[in-house]
Amino acid sequence: MSDKLIIFDTTLRDGEQSPGASMTKDEKIRIARQLERLKVDVIEAGFAAASQGDFEAIQAIATSVREPIICSLSRANDRDISRAAEALKSAQRKRIHTFIATSPLHMEKKLRMTPDQVFEQAKQAVRFARQFTDDVEFSPEDGSRSDMDFLCRVIEAVIAEGATTINFADTVGYGVPELYGTMLKNLRERIPNSDKAIWSVHCHNDLGMAVANSLAGVMIGGARQVECTINGLGERAGNTALEEIVMAVRTRRDHFKLDCNIDTTQIVATSKLVSQITGFAVQPNKAVVGANAFAHASGIHQDGVLKARDTYEIMRAEDVGWSANKIVLGKLSGRNAFKQRLEELGIALESEADVNAAFTRFKELADRKSEIFDEDIMSLVSDEEHAHGNEYYRFVSLVQHSETGERPAAKIVFSMDTKEVTCNGHGNGPVDAIVNAIESTTQSGAELLLFSVNAITTGTQSQGEVTMRLSRAGRIVNGVGADPDIVVASAKAYLSALNKLHSKVEKLNPQL
Ligand code: KIV
Ligand code: ZN
């Protein structure tokens, strides 16, 4: 058995299935480039048949990200598989990942298919996918709630058809480490051709055990691929967190005796990028990437760490990419320094005109804020991408008035399509006043599900990053906005969410 653990990142596919986490093509390319820098082995770039947007994003990633294997998900049918193959055409190394549900519940209630029909369709799908690539992954969806005999029958058949990776999915996070690991072990022992495939784990975090289940699948079950997402992003309670798996295996190499290719110093930058693009904040006490993960508040701990670091620290903050916030640029930095920093951050803007526009924004920000950090540049580029995307609603300016004992008032100017509008509103607080002012004109009818503010860096000079999650007619979107003035950041976040609702992207969820 190999001692290498393959890291398969599905942030852009399963991660994107979280309500509101949908990303634009440019955002996905930025994340894929960062995943390449992180040195993941496989990037699941999307589900090509889901929408034209997904198809194009996979195509663009396959063209521009050359090191990792690029993968597309597809249901077990010819149309989905052809679409995945088409999107992956220009990839240096490509994988088609096809799946079908195998649990009695899913087969009967969701697919309305008999086990024999599912068996035939799984075989047929793998055979068809092999016409496009030698690298075909098969997942029995809801595998952990499937019947063992049936699983053995299906998996043996798909391996015989040429599946090179078998991904044992704990789709609803029902697994318990010992049981999940043992089930995988039994499958590998019972299936005669099991050694012809690499076995993979794919766990959801509904009971908070995704990482534990994945590691049990590796240690007890002999899996050598882990499917995971940055920050554990994913539907419901999320997927297995990449950073936790990687740091567990690295820190406890004595136990796991496995290695992976990941450049751990890129972990924090990747986590911040994903959180900033999706608007899914990382909880402060989140392992490895939470703001408090390496903070020692108690006197005893601080004293211990000062005397000997390993008294209370099992990992070094710098090994996962935490460094004291670096002031990278300031008011006097020139265009070349700015451009070089963009390159170092892996941000490739499309044209010199885009660099100029981002540089102008940078100068505006530097006038208001003397120290500019990497995080500021990343959010500024996101803003620029939105402006560039000819969005329907665009923030122009606002005036806001709050005084103790008075009801806050706001006036905002923004453009709707090409027309500039000015509207006024009052509210319980300044943000409420801004939202009321915007709604007095847009009348979106959207419901605000979440409003959160985070400081991008440290200190009161920091930009505030606001996430607004809106829901309308069953669709949920996240808008993100950043500015040193958190009321302006809130207005930008609200307008960004309205833009997403306006764009009416119709997207298929593979698991529905
Ligand atoms: O959770 C799941 O079952 C999946 C499959 C498509 C692998 O995401
Ligand atoms: Zn999943």
Structure description:
The strands form four sheets. This protein has an eight-stranded parallel β-barrel with strand order 1-2-3-4-5-6-7-8, surrounded by nine helices. Strands 11-12-13 form a three-stranded antiparallel sheet. It has a three-stranded antiparallel sheet with strand order 14-15-16. It has four domains: 6-278, TIM Barrel, CATH 3.20.20; 298-324, no CATH class; 327-387; 390-502, 2-Layer Sandwich (Double Stranded RNA Binding Domain). The protein has helices spanning 25-38, 52-64, 78-87, 104-111, 115-129, 148-160, 177-190, 210-219, 242-251, 253-256, 267-278, 299-307, 335-344, 352-368, 374-388, 430-442, 486-502; strands at residues 6-9, 42-47, 69-75, 94-101, 136-141, 165-170, 198-203, 225-228, 327-329, 372-373, 393-401, 409-416, 419-426, 447-455, 464-472, 475-483. Helix 11 packs parallel to helix 15. The mean pLDDT is 93. The chain is built from 17 helices and 16 strands. By secondary structure, the protein is α/β, with parallel strands linked by helices. Helix 7 (177-190) links the parallel strand 6 (165-170) and strand 7. Bound molecules: 3-methyl-2-oxobutanoic acid and zinc ion.
